[in-house]
Amino acid sequence: MLGLGQSVQEISAPRMELINSAELLVAGKRLHGAFPDYQGRRITLKAPLAQVMDELEQVVVDHGPRVVVLVGGDPCYYGIGPLLVQRLGPERVRLHPGTTTLQAAASLLGLAWQHVGVVSLHGRNGTTLLFAALARNRHVAVYTDDSNTPAAVATMVLERGGENFRMWVFEDLGTPEQRWGQFTLEQVLGQEFSPLNLVLLERTAEPELQICLGMAEKDYCRENGLITKRTVRAAVIAALALQPDNLLWDLGAGCGSVGLEAGLLLPQGGVTAVEREPRRVAMIRENIRRTNAFWLQVVQGRMPECLHGLPVPDRIFIGGGLSGGMSILEEACMRLKPGGRLVASVVLLQSLERIRDHLEHMRWPLEILQIQASHAVPLAGGHRLQSQNPIFLVCTLKPEDATP
Question: Where would I find the Tetrapyrrole methylase domain in this sequence (predicted)?
Answer without folding.
Answer: 16-188
